[in-house]
Amino acid sequence: MQEPAYLDPRSGATFPLDEPRWCGPEGQPLLLTDLPGLGRGQIDRAKGSLWRYAAALPFRPEAPITLGEGCTPLLPGEWNGAPLRFKCEWFMPSGSFKDRGASVMLSLLRAQGVRHVLEDSSGNGGAAIATYAAAGGMRARILVPDSTSPAKTVQSRALGAEIELVPGSRQDCADAALAQARDIFYASHNWHPFFLHGTKTLAYELWEDLGFRAPDNVIIPCGAGSNVLGCALGFGELLRAGEIDRLPRLFAAQPAHCGPIARAFLGLPEAAPRPTIAEGTAIAQPIRLPENLAALRDSGGGAVLLEEEEIIEATRGLARRGLYVEPTCAQAAAAFGRLLEAGTIGRGETTVVVLTGSGLKATRRHAELLGLSL
Amino acid sequence: MQEPAYLDPRSGATFPLDEPRWCGPEGQPLLLTDLPGLGRGQIDRAKGSLWRYAAALPFRPEAPITLGEGCTPLLPGEWNGAPLRFKCEWFMPSGSFKDRGASVMLSLLRAQGVRHVLEDSSGNGGAAIATYAAAGGMRARILVPDSTSPAKTVQSRALGAEIELVPGSRQDCADAALAQARDIFYASHNWHPFFLHGTKTLAYELWEDLGFRAPDNVIIPCGAGSNVLGCALGFGELLRAGEIDRLPRLFAAQPAHCGPIARAFLGLPEAAPRPTIAEGTAIAQPIRLPENLAALRDSGGGAVLLEEEEIIEATRGLARRGLYVEPTCAQAAAAFGRLLEAGTIGRGETTVVVLTGSGLKATRRHAELLGLSL
């Protein structure tokens, strides 16, 4: 297999990996060229973190920035009378699955000499970058819309990130980040392909959790799609490495109020985004939309659009099982119910529902659902 | 070894284990008689949770209530230039170490037929009981002082616990719980000895983390002392089982503003409690004070009283390392600095600092430290 390189998946152009870069020369989003993945004999079993799969990364940093991320529980459960598995991705340093991507991305970037990073996110992405920048002795600047409630940035600020309030919308904030990216390395969880090579460890972990088998289905709360693409990468590598004999079907769960990937997959016209309780997945313009569609299609999977009431009901259903999570990720459970009812998923199949973030990140939302004012 | 029984450690009286009971006939706090512990060959390595140590419990429930608690990271780090290990106990279902105790206690109680439990805690204890009651299909009633901010009970309420606001002080609330304990089984994290047999799995885990060695020192944020007593139980069992050849020294870290266990250990007179940022350890009247003192003494360890400024500085120091935790548990790191400076702990020793709760549980405190108003 060739040396790993950055790849523009739309033109096929490649760029050498050894110089830090987060986009192509015309600002296009990049992936990496296909990597060989790893076989079960290459797992570093002494490591109780995602770094046990370091052999699957594009290169191995001498000193990974690690806080014990990964190796999260896969719990058996039931939903609407059918068995499923909950992958509990909030057992993480910063409380969400984004720590996988942040640990790998910042470890690789630091090994390439990057010391100061830029990010734009008031949510889980920003908190994860702030966490690993702190752990790695790197500086982080995080841009957030000036309308962001102070509570949302406490975690990143406490971790030492510099928070810059940008007047205007979320899009203005993203534009400001692009402008500042000339001066500070833009370690965006949405843009940098190293991030996806962190999230892909979810696939490796599910494979190991299940005794070196792929599940039949993985249902993923989907905003920009980093877990969809991460699973596609990871399971794709395992397939090419001969470790599994077929891909699991990947299903993206998105809010009906803001679900551009699901809408495109389902052949629905574009729609103006509306506010949703599933705020972590409210990404109106995902930069890797075509790659997400390809990942869902290639896996034989699909997409589900969920109404607010369904998301709320699923949030409550999870809490009744002791699973206190962000409403955002309850979409995956709600989608399981729908897919089961439609007969798309069978009761005898092995289905994983990915629960991406702690309910402690959504105290205000949970209070609203309880009718409490804080 | 005799059949396990409840034990009044102050009188030596025992009571049969097979009927649910949370205190002695005169309302005295109980422990269990000595258990044999387990050897390394008895670890159930297929389980990625504290239930791998189920052989060390007083009895094995057929269906444990488990959400993947335990098996938390033990991270190498440094503090004031000396090496230490951080045990990251917030990688847990409800975000704190209390899940160890709750999972074991409610599993054992449910196996004994208990279906409805009473607790009094607006903090981590209440959240953990609410979590495992939900997971186990049990009802939970949690009493909290009516002055408790609504934000503190959102998690327990969302998980389906019944929250009862009790007029008056924290003590009034404890008194109300004792009164209600005639009607509902009082599954108090402070009172029930099964809880300690959950927290003792921390000791087993540290032993396994370190390649079946005990650390030299364990520094523990201490309120009522469930982790101090849990470590004393677990390491004591390992010593009796011949798996370790000496106990680690246990050190209790308490706030100077409310540190009755440390004051008693250090021979200081009692003092009226004052408010502290370390609210999780602000227990003015720990019911197992003599047992805590004995545990510290028998291990050759000690106690440290920390000023508010030291706790704040340690909270910041941990955040600078990417460890976003409750200020309460930063006391353990601050105490490490003190013990190092005093020469009580040497640089070459293996010292574990236990970090008990997620910073996401203390957003308001962190905001205060940042000078942010929410």
TrEMBL record, chains A, B:
InterPro entries the record matches: Ser/Thr_Dehydratase, Ser/Thr_deHydtase_PyrdxlP-BS, TrpB-like_PALP, TrpB-like_PALP_sf
Keywords for the protein's UniProt record, in alphabetical order: Lyase, Pyridoxal phosphate
Gene Ontology BP annotations: isoleucine biosynthetic process; L-serine catabolic process; L-threonine catabolic process
One Pfam match: PALP
Tryptophan synthase beta chain-like PALP domain: residues covered: 65-357
GO terms assigned for molecular function: L-serine ammonia-lyase activity; pyridoxal phosphate binding; threonine deaminase activity
Residues passing through the membrane, by range: none
Alphabetical list of Gene3D superfamilies matching this protein: 3.40.50.1100
Cofactor(s) recorded in Swiss-Prot or TrEMBL: pyridoxal 5'-phosphate
Annotated protein name in UniProt: Pyridoxal-phosphate dependent enzyme
